[in-house]
Amino acid sequence: MVSLSSYRMFQVLQGHIQPAPHRGRKTRLVTKDGRCNIEFGNIEYSNHFAYLLDFWTTFVEIRWRFVLLLFVASFTGSWFVFSLLWYWIAKSNGDLTGQNRTDGHVQCIDNVNGLTTAFLYSLETQTTIGYGGRALTGHCAGTIALIIIQSLIGVFINCFMCGVILAKISLPKRRAKSITFSDTAVICLEKGSLCLLLRVANLRKTLLIGSQIYGKLLRTTTAPDGDTVILDQVDIDFMVDSGKDNLFFVCPLTLYHVINTSSPFYELSADSLPNQDFELVVFLDGTAESTSSSCQVRTSYIPQEIQWGFSFLPIISRTKTGKYRVDFSNFSKSVRVTTPHCVHCFETDADQKNHNSHNQENQDKQQKLGIDNLGFQVIDIHDSMDITKM
């Protein structure tokens, strides 16, 4: 049986705890998973050759389906091209089936009597299988030169394709997949200041060395000369208790940005926030401890994903065995807390409290020292004066 008080408490918590809202459909520059939503248009045709000049980066960055297609095409294509050359040599020497052979005819390649056997010989040569059924006789100098060329080209293709596949597997952005940000950001009071908070977690036990966190506020502004600046960038500083550089990233961290006079969020309020048009992009840079490769994690928040007057639920606890446990079910959940309506309201209340506190201190001091009576006049009395008459 559930008591009435427990049921009421559940209703209260159910009304205050807010799960992560659905991701907004508004067009953004950086998606939640860190991809950049941008395309390039009206590029001159000659500039496309830059991708061919930097062919290594091009092959590493293309999709896996194209890498696999390139892998199959490079090997099968080279086998087929060289099979045509072996077929041409065999045909020129009269080694094919159906050609008129004279007595004492010397073959260049044994058992290559058609295009199919020429393809099999090309495959066996480049892959160094060597079944032994087909081989060079050594009586033709052209075959010796061709087998050297095919062996060198085969080694080059092997090395290149192995390098591309290894480079794609070890790309730093794969490590970034194990770094996650909270779905929403919140604005509440933190350490006596109005702050914007968000969470980031490392899903692996290996650390990110030299981690740095920073943000960029993207918005459309109007310059003093009247020009419209699209995607104007403003720096946003994020901190944790230990600072903003060299984070000890062993457990989820709550990052906060203090909203003060130097913050671009200074003029915002709880009512005006949903109507704003900006995008907050957050970056996390670090070096993977296991591979020593640098990686960057990105995400973004739009005004509809920033909750005013909420705070994140705690997620770190300690078990009976002494281990620390992270509950990721509450990673992006928040609870409503008492928060000023705007920054100016918070500063006004703080100034009023300071003023009242200062007045109270003065009153207490006057009660201890007494009150000066302005009707009295202070005069100096010299010791040499004799004011007593007999």
Can you walk through the features of this model?
The protein is of the alpha+beta class and 390 residues long. The protein has eight helices and 16 strands. It has helices spanning 4-16, 49-53, 55-61, 64-93, 115-126, 141-169, 172-176, 343-369, and strands at residues 17-18, 109-110, 135-136, 179-181, 185-190, 193-202, 208-222, 228-237, 253-258, 278-288, 294-301, 306-308, 310-312, 316-318, 324-326, 334-336. The strands form five sheets. Strands 4, 5, 6, 9 and 12 form a five-stranded mixed beta sheet that branches. α3 crosses α6, α4 packs across α5 and α4 (64-93) runs antiparallel to α6 (141-169). The model is unreliable at 1-15 and 384-390 (pLDDT under 50).
